[in-house]
Amino acid sequence: MKMIFFIIISVLLLAPGIHAQEKSPEGFSPSSLYTLSWSISVPLGNLSSFINNVSPAGGNFTGRYFLRNGLAVGFEFGWNNYYEKYPRATYYGDDGLAITAVQYSYAFVIPWKAGVYYYFKPSAIADPFVGLSLGGDYMEEHILVQEYDIYNTQWGFTMSPEVGVLIKFGRFSHWGATASTQYWFNTNSFNFAGYNSYANMQGLNFIVGLTYMLR
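Now predict its structure.
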């Protein structure tokens, strides 16, 4: 009888907490999060004049730290590799030399950025966000014609507004997925020995990644 009484009292004491937990529509708000992403990039503007192919070869690693009320600051390291093959044609050099060959164009972009972000519902399962990141952008460009490699490397300023959503795998899960769209612009410019010149590269990145959150 005493055992039954003890069980009833225990259930009555625990029930309000269980009921409140079941009724809670939200989970926890992370203190920081880290995302490893795959990036598909669409070249725009002058970059598309040089290479017009969509690049599936890209990735990002980001870290974001929450300050208060959904406001966060963070960092981003990334890369994208662009490539296009042109049909066989005849190319003329400054010395009068003519080469008939297939042309290959490459561009390799590595941004290093810091940013500020705002998450609209930090404790919800689906949390949309917006952000703006600024930093430096290393860029390498190549035109390959037969054994000739005309190339250029440089650093420039880069800027990236972004909109996306973080989706948790559960209300109290440390894991989730992030999907976002990021426009980027940099100040890099180059001139391939008078063959072509470009300035101010642009692109549109579609990003999806796995996110780990700390409480």
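DSSP finds two helices and ten strands in the chain.
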